[in-house]
Fold each of these.
Amino acid sequence: MTTSDEREYKLLINTSRDFAKKILLPHREENDRYPLADMDEKIMEKAYELDFFHVWLPEELGGFGGHLKKLVLILENIAETDAGMAVMILINAMAQEIILQAGEGKALADICTREKSVHDFLIAFPAFTNPFETSSVANARKKGDTYILNGETPYVVLGNISGQALVYAKIEGDDSDSFFLVDLKAGSVRTGDPVISLGLHACPVCDVCFHDTEAMIIGEKGKAPDYFNRMYGTFMLAGASIAAGIMRGAFDDALAYCRNRVQGGRPIGNWSELQLMLSHMALTVKNAETMIACLCEGGAGKGTEGDEGIISASIPIFDQARDVTSSGIQALGGYGYMEDYSQEKRFRDAQHLQSFLGRATLKKLNFLKSFYKLAS
Amino acid sequence: MLNMFDSDRLMDRSGLSFQDMNCNLAAVSKQPKGIMKEVKEVVRLARKFNDTVVRPQALEMDRKIHRDPDYLPWEWVKAANEFGFYTLWIPKMFGGKGYSFSSMAYFAEELASCCLGMANLISVHYLGLATLTATWNLPLALKLCKEAVEGEKSGVPCLFDFAITEPAAGTDIADTHLVDKGSVALQAVRVEGGYTVNGTKIFISNGHFSTWHIVMGYEDLKRPADTFIFFALKSDTKGFSLGRKEKKMGQKACPASELIFHDCFVPDDQVCIDARQTRGMSRSHREIYQIIFDSICSSSKAGVCAFSAGVARGVYEKTLEHTANTRVGGSLMMNLEWVQARLADMLRNVAVTRLLYSEVNFANGMYGLNKMLQVKPAYYLYKYLPAPLVAKISAPIVNSSLCLWLTRKIQLDWKKDEELQRTTGWASIAKFTGSDAAMENCRIGLDLMGQEGLRNENAIEKFLRDSKLLQIYEGTNELNRLEAFKCVIGRNRFEITMFEDR
């Protein structure tokens, strides 16, 4: 690693932390009430100004050119304060990556050229499912040079705040899965009310319905699984970095509380039962951070298909975040359950993240299948 | 073949007696059969209430309070009052319907299978009553219960709550060793004819709804265990005010309130128990602190376990429905072996949790707070005599000083340590096992439902948010593990020290 790289990483860390502490933190509780209350859009605009939504783009489009370590540093440091914003950045980058994998960089360039606001720039994507496990997907039929979509895509992340969405649909006739880029402002698109979800409230979600909606196919017909799988490992790790950030926040707050809270005449951090809980948390957080850092240094994120090492390291981190955030609440007792403290939010966010890119158990079963495939 | 000494010795395992491990067997012959009928009745009532009131509104209520955290769901309290739920378990001698306390857990499970917040809105009222009962101040219990009965008749609900937690003292309260080193601050200063009370209580379930607050305070903050006092304070008392309503992650329908006491006067006839009343007993005041506290918790923790069974079942049922109607990769989820195994785990959690609260019920019926009214002659006498007659006969007895002295002698002074430890130990084990099982079911449910489980409209995510509190209230699960050790594992080991780890 060169000195200039190091400087760049430090700058990214400081920028993300500053953004998290100065911009996100003061509005965290208020934004967590969305969609049952308004969201402060200025935060999203600020993230856009800071180019957080551009990081994954090729350098010629103002990004870092798919540099995983840089994305991970941003996500981890923002997620420590508010995972909602981190997931917004992640989903947008995921959609960009699929488009790039499909060789449709021009489509991204078009978005960059015509963008006037953060909304015009963002790409929505249904990231809390594995598209090839669900039975109800939209369908597409060819009409001249373009395609027409009909049907519904549920739970589209950023669906109600983005200019466009990347969705998958089955093409009539050959039943193959393909990705399509859709203009969400088109009259034939109906975006539903924001979905009220378990966590990640600051990252809006809605169902999207298509009624004879014109859409642009991304890459080749029937190649959606290939593009998805090429993106999968890299973005599982990026998602895991959010889980690691959440864990770090939960641990830091738990430790600070346990040092100050006195019960039975001594700080509860001196109770060995609680020390053991904190110790499990610390080990898990450090292990996850180390694993992610090593994988980033080791060249993860080059878009190679079937990167079992990355996936095997990433999946357990989501499980660990679920457990660490639960302990984070326990350490604070009754206070941990209250919205004024951030532990309950982290708990919900971590549980929510378990479904990132599909059901947790299915991800494990799919890993086994790819592992066998590799071995044979 | 075996002499009597051998028989006893051979029944003990790991320092635990046969009675410790088999409360159910001991209770079978002693429990009145009528309790089974009562259980069926209250379960039917709960199901009707769920169908007509709770289920149609639970998710919207959750959203409403998330939108407006200060909203108080009075309509639910009034609906429960109209169903007669705030007097169902008030003994007939106090004017209530006199259902056996043992049946309450099954009722609580039923409500919790639909909405934990609603289950708590009703159950916490009886936690207040349990505290009055645990101090055995029957004249005061009679006075307050009459108001609850009147509240049902008038349509203006009269609820009780139970206030022990303070801003700097949560775990502190649970044990005399801890409280003496702790940071309690609610002080009751003796004045002519009563006490003047100052301080704050927090996280008090139902505080904003309650007419009567059953509060724990201390005469000397440096010697809290030796000077504790329980008193009842009405919400219109001068100097009393409600502070903030907490913004909780779940169980939103049941407010967690801050109670503020500023020079509140508590007359002597509203003192449940204090050091003056325990003078002359063979047990010290601090010993009685632990007996009262443990007796209350033995009931309330059984309730938490019943809540847990309800959640575990509610999640199981939702998940079962989902897997029966969802295809993954072309296969019906319910036909996948890994799904079948997870569903079996979920049903296991429901069954084990229910068995556990039943065991605590048996223990409480045999050795705990429920014992007096579950002795067969007393049970049948109260069950079959008309309520007005019971009230007429009971009132002079209940109000007599002889009755007060005798009940306290039996329940506090002559209470056997091993019986108290049995109920407390089982209650702690049930509490942490049940709540962990409920959480496990929520996690399995979320996993099996995937993206669908994340949506509020599908209820699973609400179950998860609601359930997390089960691992916290009535003592964190961490504290309950230590309590289980103290009462069950370490009780006959004289080398054991508790809460002194460095």
Amino acid sequence: MLLHPTPLGRCSRPFKHSLAATPVLVGLAFLTACTGPKEPDSLSLPETISFNEHVRPILTQNCTACHGGVKKAGEVSFIYQEEALGYSQSGKRVIAPNHPNRSELYRRITSQNPDERMPPAAHGDPLSDLDIQILKKWIQQGANWEEHWAYQKPQAPAVPLPTNDTWSRNDIDRFVLTEIKKHGLAPNPEADKTSLLRRLTLDLTGLPPSIEETEAFISDNTPHAYEAQVDRLLASPHFGERWAVPWLDLARYADTAGYEKDSYRDMWPYRDWVIRALNADMPFDQFTLSQLAGDLLPNKTADDLLATAYHRNTKTNVEGGTDDEEFLLASVIDRSNTVWQGWMGTTFGCVQCHSHPYDPFSQQSYFEFAAFLNNSQDHDTRDEFPKFSYAHDPAKREELFQMQEDLRKVNLAYTRPYQDLSQNTDWKPLTYQSAQSTQDVVLSIERDKAGRELLQTGPNTPRGTVHTIEASSPIDSFTALRVDALMPLDASLEIPGPPFVLSFIEIFYENESGEEVSVQFERAISDEANTRTSPSESLEKENKNGWKAYPRQHYDRWAVFVTKEPIHLKERKNVRIVLHNLAGHDGAEQPVLRRFRLSVDDQSNWQALSQSLQIVEAEAAREKLNRDIKNIESTAVPIIRERETDFSRVTNIFIRGDWLAKGDRVSPAVPAILLSEPDQKPTDRIEMAKWLVSDENPLTARFTVNRHWEQLFGIGIVETLEDFGSAGLPPSNQALLDHLALKFQGDLKWSTKALLKEIVMSATYRQSATISEEKRNKDPRNIYLSRGPRQRLTAEMVRDNALKVSGLLSTKQFGKPVMPYQPDKVWRSVYNKEAWETSEGEDRYRRAVYTYWKRSATYPSFVTFDAPSRDVCTPRRIATNTPLQALVTLNDPVYFECAEALAQKAIEAHPESPSDAIRYAHKQALLKEPSTEDLESLLDLYHKSEGSEANSGTVSKTSLAIVNNALLNLDAFLTK
Amino acid sequence: MQKTRRNYILATGSASLIAIVIWMLATSFTQGSESSPWSTFLGGFHPLVLHIPIGVVIVIFARSLWNLRTRAASDNRFLWLLAALSSSASFASGYFLGNEGGYDSELLNRHLWSAAAFTAFAWISFILEVLPASRSAKALLLSLNLVSVSLAGHYGGLMVHGDPFAAAPWLNDPQRYAILPEIGEEVALYQDIIDPILQAKCVSCHGPAKRKGSLRLDTYAHIRVGGKNGGVLTGNDPTRSTLLTVTKLPLHDDQHMPPKGKPQLNEVEQAAISHWIANGSSVELVLPSADVPSSFQAMLVPGYRLLPDPKLEAERLAKEKEKQLLAIARRAELQSLINERPPELASCFTFADQHGDTLHFTPITQKGQLTSDLLETLLPLINECHTIDLSDLTLPDSLFAMLAQSESLVDLNLSRTQLTELALSSLSVSPNLERLNLFATKLSAQWLTSAQGFQSLRTLYIGQNGISREHLDSVRTHFPNTEVIGDLYLEATADEDVSDTYEDTEGSK
Amino acid sequence: MNLITQLQTDSLSATTRRYFLKECMAGLGAIWFSSEAGKLFGKSGYTSKNANPLAAKHPHFPPKAKRIIFLHMAGAPSQLDLFDYKPELFRLDGKDCPPEFLEGQRFAFISGVPSLLAPRHKFNPAGKSGQMISEILPHFREIIDEVCFIKSMQTDQFNHAPAQLLLHTGNANLGNASMGSWITYGLGTENQNLPGFMVLVSGGKNPSAGKSAWSSGFLPSVYQGVQCRSEGDPILYLNNPSQIDRRSRRQILDTIDEINRRHYEEVGDPETLTRISQYEMTYRLQMHATDALDIEKEPEYIHNSYGTNPGKESFANNCLLARRLVERGVRYVQLYDWGWDHHGNGQNTIDEGLARKCKEIDRPIAALIQDLKQRGLLDDTLVVWGGEFGRTPMRELRGGVASDTFGRDHHKEAFTIWMAGAGVKGGYTYGQTDPFGFFVEENPVHVRDLQATILHALGLDSHHLSFPYQGLDQRLTGVGETPHVIEDLFA
């Protein structure tokens, strides 16, 4: 009112005074307006400010891009508590608890000066008034910092008791109902029995129920009818086949090695192990231990060792000219990232090059964790060494496993005496007179730092180089020759040296009668007991293989060649030693001995040892074991074995993630933030696995519960399964998640089946999926679970469902991957002769989980239904809805074959009446009778497509197949 | 008289003695000659001591003014003694400080001599005070003192604090350098070209007033010194000297200088700076105007504008703002018109980008259903379009008459449509039509060589109309300033075996 | 509305609502508000309820091109034998390679000290610009004035699969979205009856990177590249089974539609409505894709011009198909021709091997550029030609053993690509290499800069084209610092 100017003349005196006061008031108002942001209505400002709930989202959205773990503009970072509450480069205090006006943060977000205001104009708008008030109040209340919710151990939340709650069946429902009520919604009634059973059966076994099972359930009115179905389905052998698929996505399982050639390798026994473990409801902590550290378990079984094939799902790059060290490290990094992504939903991969942009993980902690996994024997080689023969016949599995373990012990027993003898023998170095090599390789005699003579090649060492060394022996006879292969000067443990393979060794000397004779060797022993190829192969002339360090040399190595009988040299004691390096590969650095020393010894116990009981017995045992192992039918599966201690690898920080720029060395450790008791820090792979599933770890149980929840409800309680960090979405109901996580770890003792039962028994799960207008607007994506889950079938279920319904499905389990129909010319990998031969007989109709999985050319109809290529760990398949999917189910011969098979079944049941046949087919497909209108539409389609064969009395198969083609493409058929 | 003559001799003797001593000191001074610890220590007192004589002289001056009014003479002997002593002390400490070196030699020289003069005059004034001397002599010496002290003070201040006037607003008005001053026959590259550019476009943030990145470009010395992250000139290499490279970065790069929104450097100015750096970026570089490379000859033209005329600039901005608002209004209006149409027809219309009002009519998905009468209903909207693609459609007759008037039509595609030459002729008056595509429209060469108008046409496509090479040339002569594109394809040559042979080469890895 | 579009819409409308409210409060007036609000609250365009993820969207700024054809010579063609003319190599043919080129360098196969290798074919000037090119590209000469060369390309990888992935998905390891997916994600496509991103392969094999080179990676699979095949269904499962003709397919689709609509009334799930529209789309896709991919319909002179080989897989056929697809509004057409890995073994020699491959592509490329130009398509279609890296000036010395055939090893320090159309400066060369063609001497262009330039040509800012995944705004050009758009290429 005051601001409306009125003509002064006519007003009364007091009014004039007030009018005179107007400019003053206006001035005052203007002043208050521009001095600071106006107080928002206090209603929306929470009483006590929680850092995680209110403050962190503001910081993550507006600040951490430049003030985070990577970019610390002005040395200000909001990731770590000490930095956020510390001083910035300009010396000002970023946040002074209880004093907003003394906090530079507050001054900057409220400053009117565009140059100073944060966030800077280029990066975004100024913070909203509410945000500013929240930050101010938080600082006033002492700026108490909280770690991100996901890195704090879950505390058991009190189970809420909503008022007059007749709906809840278990605790899950009580948590859900509270949330539903908070948003002014009400839960849906329970779904009808048929839809509920179809949803339950597809969710637990990946297959639809049969008509008999449906009718049995409908007629069973006992109170525990539903629970009986749940137990029946949990016990079904198909349970493991359905629930293995999400785990194989996480483990990035495939039947090929990836990259350019992407050729086949035997990994299927691991896939079968996962299915068997899930069927046997192996507790998740043991499931974890077997896969992460099965080879280190004290009394490990065949299955434990097989389970470590989990790590070997990494890709092997055998493209010509690739560096095996580089791609081994790529595999080690992929294994470390996958443990974090598959167990803890944390984007640890970012931290390879720099500390995490949003979450408190430093680059050092990244490489400390990778150190757990960086000491395995595999080295990105074409033969996928080390492998483990896994017997096909279950009865023989343990026996075959034991034999292979015994063989390793025998090898140790066989080589240990020679190694001891070699270590405490006083080897006499030969004195070299001359040395030269073929293919104009320079071979020179040099001295090492200790002044000892050695032989060194020039830079160019092509494949097939043969070294010839004339030397004289300090002693006049010798019984053994030792070759020391030394690390090249520029190589180090950080970046190992090039490989060598000694294909063949010959020594010539002058015997009594003056002829030049070659020495006969009895055996060869090296510093490593269990090797890929035995050193004795260096004694076989035709065999290019032999004693080697391949594909890289990490340490100085040695081998001893024992002569059959002592060699006596004539007075000048000259010998000529010829070393053949005939092996080659398609990389740049060829496997040739580059830097080595030769020495001899004349003790007779070399030969004596060979006759000793221990060696003879060991040799006999070895022959027998090798024979027995060969005649048990088995498949060799790549697994994990630790390198022997004196050949172990070291792990260094990669400066800016570059494997060639090595920072300082690190030892295995877990990030401190996830350890409450620092004293019991895990130091090896088995302790790390134990930590992962101990209640020390706040993430594993939550992540595992969340991904099972997502499989059943379509959206996880934490929607971004792959990122539990502060950049991911917060949980929609953290109390429910923590409750289930603690229960899964506690009472249920990590039993997956018990967890699934707990969820499917809940009223939340059993709700009908109809979506009312109100719910479609208020909760379009069903985050508050006010209705039952409704989602499209996964790629595997689309296939299995169609095969089961049309009766084509083969329930044969396990075995080599199969090749159902696939259009040709889909496989065109370079330099790879493998071709797709469609399997014959029942293998053509096997469940989808057994389909041959080629990374660079995944089965096309699966890819169209969002299946990942499984190059990397994929926690979540993002569902899409595209015309190409429609083309698959309409035109793919696999699905049309199902339509024809279903037509055949329907005709057998009702040869004359098309409408009965259609009703039969509809019931098979959707487990219920068609509505009258639907039946009418289908009949109409049937008659239209009959054309010439109309009213021939019998039901025409082609027309019925056309009707079934429509049936198997209905929205109701493709969703659960 | 004897006494006065003796006094007189004594005064001149002592004065000249003092003058000689000071003069000898001044001439023997060389900056940065030797600095013993003592001289640095004593030199340190110079800033303290030098202010005293200034104060004293001012007091004396004030008293003498005051005395003028009251006609009384005052005894200033003590004050003059104090002035002389303090000025000598400050001269001595200044002498030592000067030895340290690191000062601008020219300024230091002037400061030295004015200080020496001041010290001498102070002694002389004292002597005149002691000995009886005429008032006029005293007044004269007082004024000499005043002049010399202010000179000494000024140069001293300049050396240490820089020129206070440089920050004066009238000096700093960038417009002062809006137009490049007249350049004679000889071009002093730095003074005549480089410095004005820097003054006009850089000094407002990199000058005495504001030293962004602690970098000053207003004087040659400061340019050599560089800023926070090092020198701006690296060797004689323009591609590595940041003085130039930051001006060539893409606009959205946050290192780009001058910052967005400020007047930018154009190629000519960049070429000048590049030439200057390449030739040693020195102050003495002078070249006859004829030798100035063509790349920045334009700057020699008198009246070359470094900064746009503010008046014109304001007008331009206003016009642009108004144009923008108009465009927004037009876009909103067009959008509402489009929204009235059914979705499949509406999706034929798309805007060129997210804000402008340039509208295109490019039906591709809907080509099948666009009958000619449906097209007719869309005509008013099509008329507003910049690019119109009517290929493969059956066209309503009224189309061409309407299009002929359209202001916004620039690009018209009529390929593979049946159109009559008569209808086409009506298009000849279209004001802004630049691109016309008549590919495969069964046009005759006669029409093409007889068509009139199409004055703004820049490209014409007449392929696949069976027009022979010769006719094509005649069409080209008929449309002199239009690029006419006829049939373009390769003849099949007999010897080419065009089949591709792939036996499965077991190639290398 | 599927998950990802919903996620984007929420975040988009949340930020844009605040942005627009503030913007219009600052006085842009009600007009702006009504039109933008209209867009915001689902009246038209992006955020309408059943948003078709491939609907055409506005570019960030006025584009120079609407579509792109990328011709990738898988295996890495030798730039020194085709375009980057080096007289020094001719002079020092056979001499030892200077040591400074060797130390600190890692090669796929070369070890020891290789010798320099001059091109085996003569070079002569071509076009108005007089650019020196090899004699084994006779037809290419005729269109050289339309072409702009970049001779200073660089990449980080020297193995095929990682290098192809870096060029096409911005990351040397697998799992990322390809350039075609990013562009259809950013711009949608003009013709809703055809896929937005199509892939054509020739040369007998897929490129080393396999299907990942055109995968949608973390983007929704609707943006996946659709591979066209020369035998059987042009697109997988496009044709109906033999028992179903077009008429009964129409009837089947109508029946499905009826039943699904009734099901929607009952359950009310919006996904059902989306599925109904997708099934409708298949019918149109079958008709339009079959027509677009049938090159028989082209007149005789076109077949002769391209040198096509109907019914068989050939690069010439793929070039003609590329023109037909681009003419019908497909946004991104990607061609791969395998067989350019001339190490000198078997058929892959720098002399005959390279000449044979050039003959396969020379005529089709010249015909494609001319055909696009005569139809007025070249102005808004960007054509890019290139490999995943270059080849060494030295002769291949595989495993240190000299071979009698001529070959070159992989080389990541410098290689050449060319572009045409979309207002690119014809007859122009950007960037130079040293006299041996080993290192780049002037204006280096990293693969990321090329990607940013291509996006720029289509009106997209490589920094703003991002997708939230694993806590990062993922981008084609990586999450590091923004690459440098080479504006110099465009007139």
Amino acid sequence: MLSSFNLFDAEEKSLEQAEDLRQRLEQAPEAVRDGIASLIEAYSRSVREQRRLVRVSDRLQAQLASVNQELGKRKAEAEDALESLKAAQESLVQAEKLASLGALVGGVAHEINTPVGIALSCASHLADSTTSMRKLFEADDISVEDFERFMDTVKDTTGLILSNCERAAELIRSFKQVAVDRTSSERRRFDLAVYIRETLASMGPHLRQAGHTVRLACPEGIVMDSYPGALSQVLGNFVMNSLVHGYDPGQSGTLSITVEHEGAGSVRLTYVDDGRGIPEDNLGRIFDPFFTTKRGSGGSGLGLHIVYNLVTGPLAGSVNAESPAGHGTLFTIVIPLSP
Amino acid sequence: MDNLTIAATERSPAVDFDFAAGRLSLKGESYPEDASAVFGPIFAALEAFFGAARDREVSFDFDLSYFNSSSAKALMNMFQMLDQAAGAGCRLTVNWFYAADDDTMKEFGEDFSEDLSHVAFNLVSVE
């Protein structure tokens, strides 16, 4: 049964019938017989051609099918690989976050350790002195010199305890800022120019004290739907960065803030001071947590790290720092009007 | 006569000929290496069935997503057989299914239907 199946069964039967017909045309004129014979020959050739085409075409289609299968397999493999890459990337990001959190906590612990340690040894020294004084007092044997020495000790140690506890408290406040909880900070609509002016006004005392001039160039009427608290903190940290690092005591300068549209949905805010600038070696590290050149005199190394976190986090933008030699420091942030 | 049921393979369609109920179907892809191995049994069963079908009511579903040139030729032969059976009195309906976004398969259905004068032919778009 199988061997009898023939795709061109009908065509072959037609050819046989045609051959029969031709043989019955013995009596017909030669021209008619030749004509029929060549028609049969042409049809036969056409059937052979059809068979050949079907065979060639089948082979191509089979090749196409296996190529498609291979393609599907490769695509599935590539998709699997992409999935594992994404998973690996995700876990790397998580690990990085944990590592930076670890570094942050380690840094905070290290930072707080110093003032707490100083306060502790001062308190201990004060306690010892007080015990000695009490003994002298109970023996009614306090000389004026003893008392004056004790008073000096009290003044020195309490002063150190106070200043170091304040330093520790300030570090803890900074740490809380670093760990800004994005969800708790309020999002609302606000006019950018108005808001920047308010922020600068709140920093007026700092600026006036040092005699700095502030210039603001911001188009009126830019309305953002974003996190004003974060933006205010970013500007505040830029200004404090300039005040602490940019100028020598008594030196006054000019700080300027320029806002421009950046495409349809973003703004570019450029902050420039004309202070001493940032050495090239440090420029790549200023956004790292606890990087500071003022460790000994009150810098926590967290200000610009907070800026980086706020701009790339809640504000969904980017921040860049430049310091052309001898031309102060320039920070550029590009943030969407509505993150 | 016995029904004919052949499971689909990677390169040949599922055959489900329920002769008792008069419902026949070919479903899947068809690009076999040996067309006669696939279509031989199908044609043998159809010839036997339609040879005795007389004025029975029969529906034949073609739900093919892909076929090669041999299969196309086999389908052409099959439609010729179906049209002859319908011409001889069999009340035959052919449903040609095609994916809504597959214009080629729709055009094949239209092509085949042009050669049919006795069969009721339906083009059925499947979402």
